[in-house]
Amino acid sequence: YHIWNILKNKRKDENERIVALFETLYKVRCNLFHGSKSVRQDRDKKLVKASSVILGEYLKVFLDEHKDMRG
To answer: What is the pTM of this model?
Structure first.
């Protein structure tokens, strides 16, 4: 629950909250590929879908902000 406490605590540093978010996304990914998450379980599907939406939105912003770095 440490990561959850960081995410919901608005007094925490923004970078710390972003790191906690990505740690959570990484745990979902690892559980899907190596562990206890299954695309056959409705709850797991919702978690993976929500994670992919978050990551997709982040990537849109990131790529837009760094478009001058692309070749």
So the answer is: 0.66
Burial of 11 (0-12, 13-18, 19+ CB in 10 A): exposed
Residues 32, 46: Cα–Cα separation, whole Å: 12
Measured CA to CA, the distance from residue 7 to residue 27 in angstroms comes to: 15
Tell me what the mean pLDDT of segment 61-65 comes to.
84
5: closest CA among 58, 27, 16, 57?
A: 16
Calculate ∠ Cα 68-29-27, nearest 5°.
Answer: 105
Amino acid symbol at 64: D
